Amino acid sequence: MEHGTTRRNLLRTCLGGALAARAQAPVKSRVVIARDPLMGPRVSPDASRVLKLLDRAMQSLCGVDAPLEAWKKIVRPGEMVGLKVNCLAGRGGSTSVVLCEAICERLKQAGIQDIVIWDRSNWDLESGGFRAASRKDRVRCVGNDDTGYESDLAEYGSAGSRMSQTLTRVCDAVINVPTLKDHGIVGVTMALKNFFGAIHNPNKYHANVGDPYVADVYMLPPIRQKVRLAICDAITAQYEGGPSYMPQWTWPFNGLILSRDPVALDYTGWQIIERKRAEKGMKSLREMRREPTYIARAADPQHRLGTNDPRSIELVET
What we know:
- By secondary structure, the chain is α/β, with parallel strands linked by helices.
- It has a single domain (28-317), classed as 3-Layer(aba) Sandwich (Rossmann fold), CATH 3.40.50.
- It has 11 helices and 13 strands.
- The strands form 2 sheets. Strands 1, 2, 3, 4, 7, 8, 9, 10, 11, 12 and 13 form an 11-stranded mixed beta sheet that branches. Strands 5-6 form a two-stranded antiparallel sheet.
- Helix 2 (47-62) crosses helix 4.
- The longest helix has 23 residues, at 2-24.
- It is globular.
- The relative contact order is 0.16.
C-alpha cells in the first residue's frame, strides 16, 4: 500500500512537472513568408493575386481559416487604423499602392470605417504613387508635413524626438507596411526603421549603424503601444544601394513577410538580403561594416521588442 501510494505520487509529480514545463515554454514569434511568382513588379502587381496572397499570409499568421477572422484578431471596429508606408524611394522602391488597397479592403470588411495611409511627407507619398488627399471611401493619405509634429519631445534612451500627430492623435492602431530593402548606412530598413518616418529628426539617428537609435526610437510610447502588425512588402526587394531605388540591385522576391514581432521580421528579412548578396558574390553586411546590430539591440533585456534568436522564431513559408 505504501509502495502504491509512493508510485502514484511519483506519477503525479512527473505529470505536474511536465505540464508546468509546457506552460512555461516560451511562445515562439511567428514570421510568415508568403510568395506568388506571378504577382508582377511592385509598381504594378496583379491586384487579385496580391489580395489572395495577403489573405493566405494573414490566415497563416493568425492560425484561422478565413481572412476576416484574422483581421478581427488585429483590429476592432470603430478604431482609426493607420498604414505606415515607406515612400522615400519613389516609384519602384516604395510600399506598393496595390498592397495597401488590398489591406484597406480587408480592414473595411472587418468593420474599420476610417483608415489613414501616412508617411513623413506629402511629397514622399505622391512620389510613391499615393495621392495625398482625403478620399470618398474614407481612406486618407497624409504626410506629417500636413498634420505636424507634437511640440514636446518623446524620449527613450538615446532618442528624443517630436512625434507625428498622425500617429499620436489620429491613429488608434497602426499597421506597419515597410519594404524589404538594403540601407547604405544602417544595413537594412524594414519594420523597425520604418518609424524614422514618424519623427521630426531622423537625420540624428544614423551614427554607429543606427545602434541603439533604431531600437530606441521604436521604444517611444506611441510607436510601441499602437503598432499591431507588420506587413513587409517584399514583392520587389533590394539587396544593395538603398534606401534610394536602384533597379540594378533589385530582384523579384514576389512575396510578403508578416509578423507581430518587428524584431523577428527584421532578422528574417536581413537573412534574406544576406543570402541574395552571397548569391551575387557580394560581401556580407558585416564585412561592409554595416551589419544591422540594432536588431539585436531591439531584442535585448532593456528593449524586449521581440526576438532575433532563430530558435525562438517560428518561420512559416506559404
